[in-house]
Amino acid sequence: xxxNDVKEYCLSKPKTYIDYPFGDISLCIRIDGGKHTPxxxxxxxxxxxxxxxxxxxxDLAVFYRSEYPxxxxxxxxxxxxxxxxxxxxxxxxxxxxxxxxxxEAYRSGISKLPKYLQKExxxxxxx
Length: 127
Known about the structure:
Elements: H1 3-11, E1 16-19, E2 26-31, E3 39-44, E4 51-55, H2 58-67, E5 72-74, E6 86-90, H3 95-110, H4 115-122
Antiparallel strand pairs: 1-2, 2-3, 3-4, 4-6, 5-6
């Protein structure tokens, strides 16, 4: 899988768009919720790196880090208080694992929106 594959997959989800809040080093994929626009995936462009950073619930984040210790780490750019909610993931993992992580990241991002937007975008309130 490539970073471009990740970008296309993320943008295929409803109400998503690209943003560059950290400059041109990182491309962030956000969910358009009006004034509420959570980031659910970040594609970093350092030379020689084939990694992305993905939103995750803390329990699932720990599971992925323990399951793939050499391929999944805490979100490297995050301050410590946010690190439990983000994983930096090598794109060397199987595609289906990355897609599952991205689906969970999208769901997690949707859960940060007001309930009326969750229903509008996702079809239900996310718990």
